[in-house]
Amino acid sequence: MRYIECSTPDEPTGPANLAVSTAPDQTPSAGEVLVSVAAAGVNRADLMQRAGHYPPPPGASQVLGLEVSGTVLATGPGVEGFVAGDAVCALLDGGGYADQVVVPAGQVLPLPAGVDLAAAAALPEAACTAWSNLVDVGRVSDGAWVVVHGGSGGVGSLAIQIATALGAHVVATAGGPERADRCRALGAEVVVDHRTESFVEAVRAASGGHGADVVLDVVGAAYLAENVRALATGGRLVVIGMQKGRRGELDLGALLTKRASVAGTTLRARPAAEKAAIVAAVREHVWPMIADGRVRPVVHAQLPLDRAAQAHALLDSGEVFGKLLLVP
């Protein structure tokens, strides 16, 4: 098999240190599925791992890549529901930057109706992250006001669509008029250019003073105080990223007055059983949204696997809308 090797995986490295390498083909063990990779999603977590800030869970592959699409090559003992030749996509613990990967069967999804096989690689990580945090943690319901930070990102672009499909009113943040327009096209009722506007004032104005029932935040510390200000009484701030800092000052008085809550979650470090439950929920609830056109993968570009370094540089530039894919 061919895969992308990070030449010094335990130390900070630049994109130039990503290079193609080879290893023996893999064989699935009990409960595993071997997938021939059609495409792999590129996520900010990959950039963090490359820089030495986001190590994979114990026992996971050191190879970058948290989601793929492709075709089942073989299944291990005890696997039901998938057979060789099936078109699938999958949520990974690691190993996606390769032309084949072994995945626990509970983290494999059938190709959703109407989606190109390569484009499906843009779905597993974003769909599982958006669904689990909007619904399981944020308890988004019909009529709720939801702020989605980073609406132009891989998770944000899908979170806008899922929240809209659930009947929520979405206020998204993005950088610049063009990206704002694309967020509106995905279903956001209000889009705030974070470079020049206040999302706190925007959500309060749009909601008639109610505020945000849920804030889905990838920014982290830099937005902590404003996020709390934006919350409605009983609102939920769900932090899923730290793009602009990991330490901030929390006004407990404001939080208590609003009877609000702050939750922080990650997906990769969860036990296999929890991941399988999230994947099953996505298959049950999000896949029908894709089949009927309410949700679609948002793909910025597809690059050959051996241009992984270029993909990382492009994602780091802030120019990407949606997901970048690597194609073996």
TrEMBL record:
It comes from the Bacteria. NCBIfam families: quinone_pig3. InterPro entries: ADH-like_C, ADH-like_N, ER, GroES-like_sf, NAD(P)-bd_dom_sf, Quinone_OxRdtase_PIG3. This is NAD(P)H quinone oxidoreductase. Keywords: NADP, Oxidoreductase. CDD domains: p53_inducible_oxidoreductase (cd05276). SUPFAM superfamilies: GroES-like (SSF50129), NAD(P)-binding Rossmann-fold domains (SSF51735). It comes from Paraoerskovia sediminicola.
